Amino acid sequence: MAHTPDPCNDILRIGCGAGFSGDRWDAAVAVVGTLIAKGGPCALIFETLAERTLALAQQQRLTDPDAGCDPMLERFVTPVLRDCIQHGIPIIGNFGAANPRAAADRLQRLARTLRLPALRIAVVEGDDLLHALDKERLRSLMPAHLNAKDLVSANAYLGAMEIAQALKAGAQIVVTGRVADPSLALGPMIAHFGWAEDDWDRLASGTIAGHLLECGAQVCGGYFADPGVKDVPDLEWVGFPIVEMHADGRFIITKAWGTGGCVDMRTVKEQLLYEIHDPASYMTPDVIADVTEVELRGAGVDRVEVSGVRGHAMPPTLKATVCIDAGWLAEGEISYAGANATARGRLAGKIVRDRLQQVGLMYLPLRIDLIGQSSVFADDAGRWSAPSLDDAFAVHDVRLRVAAGTRSRSDAEAVVREVLSLYTCGPAGGGGVRTHITSRLASDACFVPRDWIQPTWSFVP
Known about the structure:
The protein is α+β, with helices and mostly antiparallel strands. The chain folds into 2 domains: 11-145 and 154-315, no CATH class; 322-445, 2-Layer Sandwich (Alpha-Beta Plaits). It has helices spanning 27-38, 51-63, 73-86, 100-113, 129-132, 135-141, 161-168, 183-193, 200-213, 265-273, 341-358, 409-420, 422-425; strands spanning 11-18, 42-46, 91-93, 121-125, 151-156, 173-176, 241-246, 251-255, 282-283, 288-290, 295-298, 304-307, 310-312, 317-337, 366-371, 397-406, 431-449, 456-460.
């Protein structure tokens, strides 16, 4: 089907190519194809940075100064980079994580691999509080229950203004670390329309548009789908969203052409309220948005118009996420099948608990579940609160899962060895053992006086 490009420059289209770091690598292709076909000014955002993702990136950078950005960066960008550069579509992504300059270097190398000219890449910095603040100031911000000596990362949520400035200066790609998710989309809106820093209603509308974009396919029916209750067509081909923003702050949310999923009043309402604690006061670094008077109107197939967003002056503080080293997580699983499987699984769990007591590790936070029998109903103390089953054949297979939090890796190894030993130490018929040990992070939020933070942007060679 042929589409006529829309020549109206009053509309800025912004597409989303990823909603988290584990998203589909090919999702942006249909989005970029739609942007090109529609014509006019547009931009593409990649939202790949969660709180835990950033802390893990900080850990990686500690061991390798060239690491710390999204390891899947090239996978996301390669399918669309050539088209974006050739059609003047700027890319804005927080795939810089803990090391935006490393991400910029990788993008420049990618351009050379694709035989593209050197790119104008800007990086936004200033979110890393470990470098921005002295230790005493940082310690004064941290929640009392967190131990400053175990600090792994502390990052403030920056806003959209530095992104906008970089785009107005001609950046083809803007790489950020921790910015507020909606700011990735608000930045190109400010750059294109010239909205003032205190134009609160328009900034709020742009923020809500970014909020609808930020989770990728979620607003297009992905996370919305519930078969038989909220049916969504062709979910295996679910499309990713596009916002069509007008200069006055009205916008339409739609999705890429030729894709599955749906954008309707239901999906937009769910995403609109997602992660918003107070609809009258959604606080971001750029503005406080009020969605209590928002109006939604169907504007065609897979098109919903949003209007009526109101804004108030930005808060005096910036939110920050603080992560500390929380030791290790030891996990082990083993399956039991056939007659009396539940009883054998219960016995195996008791054996592990008793063995850990024998070796002096019962101080550990420990959880033992029988998946398929009581994993939903049991609690962290390991009490079996599910109804008892007298019929030995009522459950034909169960999977024992043992999980423990430890302060040392050696203790974690001791836990998983006890699960592994169930193979031959009994009870009968255990199989399919899997064990895993991972480092753990604990996180919390705090607030930083805005004037303590000095965000910057710059071009990198």
